[in-house]
Amino acid sequence: MSPARNARPGPIAVSCGEPAGIGPELAPAAWRILGAEVPFFLIGDPAHVPDDMAPIVAITQPQDAAEAARDGLPVLPLEMAGARTPGTPQAAQARGVIAAIERGVHLVATGKASALCTLPIHKQALADGAGFAFPGHTEFLAHLAEADEVVMMLASDQLRVVPATIHIPLSDVPAALTAELLERRIRITHAAMIAQFAIPRPRIAVAGLNPHAGEGGKMGREEIEVITPVLDRLRGEGMEIAGPLSADTMFHAAARARYDVAIAMYHDQALIPIKTLDFDRGVNVTLGLPFIRTSPDHGTALDIAGQGVANPSSTVVALRLAWRMAGGAE
């Protein structure tokens, strides 16, 4: 949970992600931009950070990160098997990647870090090297935190959006989009906007599933039979909810000014607008965890790892957002 607003939050823990990807380049690049503005520390093998990107300052406890950041990238060492091999994941390093995530969760759960920012993992590499059986990062974090249900939010300065259904075929969305699922997604989002984004009365916009939000049943009945009854019930409890809205008219500037967060019905309906508006600075935020978690909204980029061309913009924004959510900045 976020600390009291009058307390100085602890630093942000950053799990290293896949060593063969761009994670070891993103952390020092973010430090060069942020310096001590946002105190954070990397959990990983110091030997994996490119020598020419930033000086390394090894720390033994998170509370030393802010002072260490004046001189270099603070790293809480977690030694892994073997050298970094950009572009080629090493099976022997998979357990270390998982251990970095576990350590980060432990540190935020015990209050030694104020938030967790996770750098991208390579799920297949973890499955091959360590039997990683979770669909992704988010599900693993929910398991570690013993959270009943979590929700993915994509956030930038221009838009916050939550997909009700995520990584399933489009043909499966109508069956997956139940009233119970939609209600849970909205409730978790509403609670997080209050607790973690400090918006006491969040304005929520909900998209329809079909073109023109079904056009009164002419282009589908999900709006009438599933979505509207849920929204009416939650509005009856006092939530400020608009919808179901036609998705093709709810993401332009004037429309976005009327809500704090949008709920979309499926993956692309949510991600296309935010990636169009702010491709390099979108942040993945996990709602429903008992701590703050952000992550850059991209993958390991094995194809460019080791070339020094990785764009740290999303990582920088993810760190700044985590710091703001933790109460470290207005």
Sequence-ordered SSE layout with sheet pairings:
Layout: E1 12-15, H1 23-34, E2 40-44, E3 56-58, H2 65-68, E4 73-77, H3 94-109, E5 115-118, H4 123-130, H5 137-145, E6 151-155, E7 160-163, H6 173-176, H7 179-195, E8 203-207, H8 222-236, E9 240-245, H9 253-256, E10 261-264, H10 267-278, E11 283-287, E12 293-296, H11 313-325
Parallel strand pairs: 1-2, 1-5, 2-4, 3-4, 5-12, 7-10, 8-9, 8-10
Antiparallel strand pairs: 6-7, 6-11, 11-12
Number of helices: 11
Write down the CATH class of the largest domain. Answer: Alpha Beta
List low-confidence stretches. Answer: 1-6
Radius of gyration: 20 Å
CATH structural fold name of the largest domain = Isopropylmalate Dehydrogenase
Largest sheet: 12 strands, mixed
- Proper CATH architecture of the largest domain: 3-Layer(aba) Sandwich
Q: What's the domain count?
A: 2
Order of helices and strands: EHEEHEHEHHEEHHEHEHEHEEH
Counting DSSP E segments of at least 2 residues, the number of strands comes to: 12
> Percentage of helical residues?
25-40%
- Give the structural class: alpha/beta
Average pLDDT: 94
- Widest sheet: strand order? 3-4-2-1-5-12-11-6-7-10-8-9
Family: Belongs to the PdxA family.
Catalytic activity: 4-(phosphooxy)-L-threonine + NAD(+) = 3-amino-2-oxopropyl phosphate + CO2 + NADH
Function: Catalyzes the NAD(P)-dependent oxidation of 4-(phosphooxy)-L-threonine (HTP) into 2-amino-3-oxo-4-(phosphooxy)butyric acid which spontaneously decarboxylates to form 3-amino-2-oxopropyl phosphate (AHAP).
GO molecular function: 4-hydroxythreonine-4-phosphate dehydrogenase activity; cobalt ion binding; magnesium ion binding; NAD binding; zinc ion binding
